[in-house]
Amino acid sequence: MYKGIIYRYSIFNDMGNEVSYIGQTCSDKKRRSDFLNRNMQYSGCRIENARKKYGSENFKYEILEEIECQTILERNRLLNEREQYYIGLYNSFGKGYNNTLGGGGANGYQHTEEYKKWQSKKSTELAKNPDYRKKISDGIKAYYNCPVARTRKSIETKERYLNPVERAKTSIIQKMSYVTNPDRAKKHSDKLKVVCNTPEGKKRMSDTIINAWKTNEYRDKYSISKKALWATEEFRDKMIIAYKGMNGKMVLQSTLDGIPVNEYESAVEAARQLGYSFGGICRVCRGERAQYKGFKWSYMK
After folding, report:
1. What SS3 state is found at 76?
2. Is residue 52 part of a domain?
3. 273: domain range?
């Protein structure tokens, strides 16, 4: 059983208003100790300033909710949801000490334009330093060489990808980075080739594809993307060149009852005219599938 809590720190400010800070943790004792230790940096500038001003020991501490789950993923999801709920309930983002809207991320936090420019300039200068780049690279490698860290990161990534908005956001960012930096795209491609040529890599790729095809969402997405490609004249012309000479057998299209519908010079030509998958037609012709797109397909002698 995996446990976690949502807690609240509160204090009356100089105006006589009760102000709150909402947090989540899986280690109540350590988190409490960190808050009371003034030498330990806590969570964000708002609560940091308040600790210095009023004193950590003068805050009232209370546990708002305890959570128990069967899996780490479920526990983290519930903690994020409940943290966001209580931040809204006590308005600790608008008129409190929370820097964000909660949920394990930086939702709601807004940097000033001045800070953004300063941070951009500083990051650009640091990136030019080979020693700095090596230090960051070594740190990331050391982190991912730890099995616990890899497991934790994997859980966080899977949890984030359950959100369609986050998936779309990540996809856009990745595509933009590859367009603006062709070298990065090439390095990533070369790395994938090396990994996928190993027995372990091939098995992982195979399992991933098999599991993906078991979901209706992936099949529908694949079908839509293929139809969109075949609808473009440029793609059809490329396929004609790519499949030229691969399949010269005439193909018969029939209903499921065996009534002939049309004849085509080849499976490639049938796919081109109808906007279907060349592979889908061929698999029926070879007897690997019973039908495709509601039709039977067979090679004509």
Report:
1. helix
2. yes
3. 230-299
